[in-house]
């Protein structure tokens, strides 16, 4: 039998959106904790292994997203070192195959747009397929109706997806909702299978990825990050040589820093 390769999936979204619940639904068992992640540091991550009944294997990276559309300077600096660690870990695992953007089925917000941009545009340079996972839809007669009603709002915020799963990810629901939970597993797994393109290599980011990432992310920062602080993070937390760190920091849009 040919060796089964593992696909790497990054799941992101605000706290309480249902990321850990979605991982458990996908896995068919409780592997992720359903409680606020104790480390709320932007782009901090936890890795899980999931195997479907047909033997296909996935590594799912549960991440900490933004809680507001903007970042404070301190958060910006830790987001840089977390992103660097995450991308390097993903590279070791063979690259990113799919992004799952988890949102609660309610109003489309500016924070959702910032998370979309952080993960899809900044972290993955728009090179990775993205599927939307909309949770909390057990009260809808047809869960898919949420998408039909909200499509125009997603467009307004420039949130584009290759596919979507409208689901409920809550496991402790009564009879009628229980059926929707089971139905949701099928919907979610199909979306993952279809969009985790097995014939494509995972995306890993190129040579100038880090410079490009920290430069784009500066757009979200409240205040002006200091070049010396960025060099400090790159050398102390990312283990970069001082000269390289200086060059990276030099490339950041000069109007945004002091
Ligand atoms: N009713 C309902 N509750 C849900 C659904 N999905 C998740 N929840 C609940 O919402 C809460 C948050 O869910 P989590 O899966 O922990 O959310 P998360 O995105 O992992 O949150 P953080 O780890 O804090 O970032 C939990 O109490 C879940 O049981 C859903 O589809 N419907
Ligand atoms: Mg969680």
Total number of distinct structural domains: 2
Written as H for each helix and E for each strand, in order along the chain, the element string is: EHEEHEHEHEHHHH
The end-to-end distance, rounded to whole angstroms, is: 58 Å
Look up the CATH topology of the largest domain.
Rossmann fold
Second CATH tier, the architecture of the largest domain? 3-Layer(aba) Sandwich
Can you describe this structure?
This protein is an alpha/beta fold and 258 residues long. It has 2 domains: 6-195, Rossmann fold; 209-256. Helix content is 41%, strand content 15%. The chain has 8 helices and 6 strands; from the N terminus they run βαββαβαβαβαααα. It has helices at residues 19-27, 73-92, 110-123, 145-156, 175-195, 209-217, 227-237, 242-250; strands spanning 6-12, 45-51, 57-63, 98-104, 130-135, 163-166. Strands 2-3-1-4-5-6 form a 6-stranded mixed sheet, with helices on both faces. A hairpin with a 5-residue loop joins strand 2 and strand 3 (57-63). Helix 2 packs parallel to helix 7 and helix 7 (227-237) packs antiparallel against helix 8. The protein is globular and about 60 Å long. The termini are far apart. Guanosine-5'-triphosphate is lined by residues 13, 15-21, 34, 36-37, 135-136, 138, 168-170. It holds the Pfam family MMR_HSR1. Residues 8-134 form the G domain.
């Amino acid at each position: 039998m040919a060796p089964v390769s593992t696909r790497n999936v990054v799941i992101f979204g605000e706290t309480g959106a249902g990321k850990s619940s979605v991982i458990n639904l996908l896995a068919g068992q409780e592997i992720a904790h359903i409680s606020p992640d104790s480390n709320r540091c932007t782009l901090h991550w936890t890795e899980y292994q999931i195997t479907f009944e047909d033997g296909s294997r996935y590594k799912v990276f549960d991440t900490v997203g933004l809680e507001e559309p903007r970042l404070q300077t301190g958060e910006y600096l830790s987001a840089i070192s977390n992103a660097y660690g995450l991308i390097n870990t993903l590279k070791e695992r063979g690259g990113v195959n799919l992004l799952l953007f988890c949102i609660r089925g309610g109003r489309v917000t500016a924070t959702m747009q910032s998370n979309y941009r952080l993960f899809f545009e900044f972290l993955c340079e728009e090179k990775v397929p993205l599927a939307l996972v909309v949770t909390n839809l057990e009260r809808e007669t047809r869960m898919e109706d949420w998408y039909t009603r909200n499509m125009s709002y997603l467009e307004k915020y420039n949130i584009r997806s290759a596919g979507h799963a409208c689901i409920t990810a809550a496991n402790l629901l009564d009879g009628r909702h229980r059926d929707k939970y089971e139905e949701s597993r099928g919907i979610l797994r199909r979306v993952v299978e279809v969009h985790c393109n097995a014939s494509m290599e995972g995306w890993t980011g190129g040579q100038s990825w880090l410079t490009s990432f920290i430069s784009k992310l500066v757009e979200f920062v409240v205040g002006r990050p200091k070049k010396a602080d960025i060099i400090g993070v790159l050398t102390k937390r990312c283990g970069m040589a001082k000269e390289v760190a200086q060059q990276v920091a030099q490339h950041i849009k000069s109007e945004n820093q002091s």
